[in-house]
Amino acid sequence: MDATMKVALLSFLMHFWSSAECSNPHPLDPLTPSEINLVQTIVQKAYPTSNTTNHNLIFNYVGLDEPDKLEILSWQSSNPKTKPKPSSPPPRRAFVIGRFQKQSHEIIVDLSKKSIVSTKVYQGNGYPPLTLGEIEVATQLPLSYEPFKKSLSKRGLNVSEVQCVDFTFGWFGEAETRRIVKIKCHYRNGTANFYARPVEGVEMLVDFDDMKIVGYNDRYVVPLPKAEGTEYRASKLKPPSAPKLKQDDGPGFTIDDHTVRRVKNKGDGGDDEGYGGEVVDGYDSRAGPIISLASYYDLQKKKHRPVLYKGFISELFVPYQDPTEEWYDKTFFDSGEYGLGHGEITRFSQQSSLQPFTDCPSNASFIDAYYASSDGTPVKIPNAFCIFQKYAGGIMWRHTETAIPNQMITESRLEETLVVRTVSTLANYDYITDWEFKRSGSIKSVVGLTGILALKAANYTNTDEIKKDIYGTLVADNTIGVNHDHFFTYYLDLDVDGVDNSFVKSNLETVRVKDGSIPRKSYWRVVSETAKTEGDARIKLGLKPSELVVVNPNKRTKQGNKIGYRLLPGPMAQPLSLSDDFPQIRGAFTNYDVWVSPYNKSEKWVAGSYVDRSRGDDTLAVWSERDRKIENKDIVLWYTMGFHHIPCQEDFPVMPTLSGGFELRPTNFFESNPVLKTT
Ligand SMILES: *[C@@H]1O[C@H](CO)[C@@H](O)[C@H](O)[C@H]1NC(C)=O
Ligand SMILES: *[C@@H]1O[C@H](CO)[C@@H](O)[C@H](O)[C@H]1NC(C)=O
Ligand SMILES: *[C@@H]1O[C@H](CO)[C@@H](O)[C@H](O)[C@H]1NC(C)=O
Ligand SMILES: *[C@@H]1O[C@H](CO)[C@@H](O)[C@H](O)[C@H]1NC(C)=O
Ligand SMILES: *[C@@H]1O[C@H](CO)[C@@H](O)[C@H](O)[C@H]1NC(C)=O
Ligand SMILES: *[C@@H]1O[C@H](CO)[C@@H](O)[C@H](O)[C@H]1NC(C)=O
Ligand SMILES: [Cu+2]
Is the pTM of this model over 0.90? Predict the structure, then answer.
């Protein structure tokens, strides 16, 4: 095979946090169980239990305190991708947010020195994420609370069948807040789908610092929706059931320590020297899966070319749209208030890790992950990730040529994608997150929404009985699926073939042909505009046709085009809440679909660091007001994919997956089709 004819091939090596501990972790690897244990020991020693309050420090967040990007990049570039890994990566540190004596403490721990580097008491608004440990205790409180027991007997219900659920309370303009969370309860008796059986009209407030019920309300009585027709467990359903899906291709990759590598495919050029790109896949209790250092090994240029320094879901904002007293406050920030990364372990089931053969194809490989529990102990999520190749039957490219005399040419290549999948279960909802790496260089992120709707009980069994707005859809007897939105805001630190990038809007503009030189009256042309400051890069999609490209202004193709990657947006949903409405002030980062900001290590969480009961004073919308320069700089693209969800009857009792995804697609990044020679 002619070396000059070799085409670029996509291959990603992936570093994972596997249960097998690596003696020398990649600096972006998540904390290992023994590192979490070390953090627990060091922090607990520094914050001893006070026997007056009898409150231990709660570990609300334990994560990697990432080294500075420049340190990572220089470490990476100064060392070849060889094993064993070079000996002097940047120091490993952990960042902890601990709730202690009603204050949020920020603690940085140096893992090699085994000591605390710094501590700080957070003074601003808002609270850290709720922990599963806290939720477990709080949701038990009603069961021994006398007024609640009275409410149950009034409804003829038995406390043994009650299942309580926590709801973050938001902020509605109060001057003072406490760390208050709302609790509402549901009834099991005969179904696993207790979400379908809310004990409507009853709610209470729990102060999470004192772990006490501080407010109680029993406002009205409506029928408890029936258990019948709500079940989803296969074992409880009558036949016939659907056949199992089957994938009969073997794996095209191997997992070796923290590295996932594609195995050579036929037609890859017979040369696997330097073959492979790199993706470090991290895991964080707040973000869930994190893709880092994704690069593409370009066989033509014979080097790794960086694409995505980091990508993850920074926030998932889910405001419900029922203005009644019990429901108006349901405006969740799932990442900042709960965390997308320990969703697998729900407080109810203790495990809903990926299920081989149904959550992932049969030949998938699985990897565990860990997070720190309330008391700092590492908790394993078995099978948190699965990795597999997807042959969905798509065509990578093709052409049939019939115009040449006596010849009939057909060339066609099947699409193949490497998928890294995780599932975050946030109480009733399940979010499937797929990061897909295509051989053509595209990186796609697809979310799937499934699970159980947030359901409200009501007197109605037929829409004819409904005289006023019910703020949702009657999906079953006495059961309303309440209207809501899902806004997924992604943090995308693209480093397109280098750190310094610019953001270019290529607007498509109609031109009228005025001189009559041709019979056409109009055509469109491209007018490109490079964003100079943050203000130039706030974009509401769909208003005017444009291509949004992150380019490296310092590099060009042989043809002279700027090397870039463009954003192909997924589902769009502009927020409909008024901008002065409190939830929207807190979620103001959804006011635009796209924002660009200069890289800043502290600007990572789009809704702010402390989101529970936050006031919107630490969101991207506020940071962006500084209108910083973003041209030819290390920049971060913030992109929101949105869904307005009007529930329908098919969503009951469990919702069929609703998917949406966006793509980061090479645009003048390669000299030509990089998968031309793939077979
Ligand atoms: C617990 O509190 C009592 C009285 O406040 C004090 O005398 C005692 O030393 C404390 N014990 C510990 C272990 O801190
Ligand atoms: C409630 O349920 C428990 C456990 O199933 C049972 O022992 C008890 O008798 C029930 N109480 C009432 C009032 O039905
Ligand atoms: C549970 O449901 C069954 C069947 O509907 C009913 O007979 C029973 O009383 C219920 N038990 C409780 C504790 O609600
Ligand atoms: C539901 O119907 C019952 C019985 O007719 C009535 O007592 C109750 O007030 C109704 N509740 C609501 C919220 O309309
Ligand atoms: C898994 O891959 C192997 C080849 O590596 C293949 O023989 C086998 O049939 C596959 N299994 C399934 C269930 O698809
Ligand atoms: C980085 O972000 C933080 C939080 O928004 C801000 O306080 C700080 O000034 C920023 N640093 C720079 C260099 O812009
Ligand atoms: Cu929904």
Answer: no
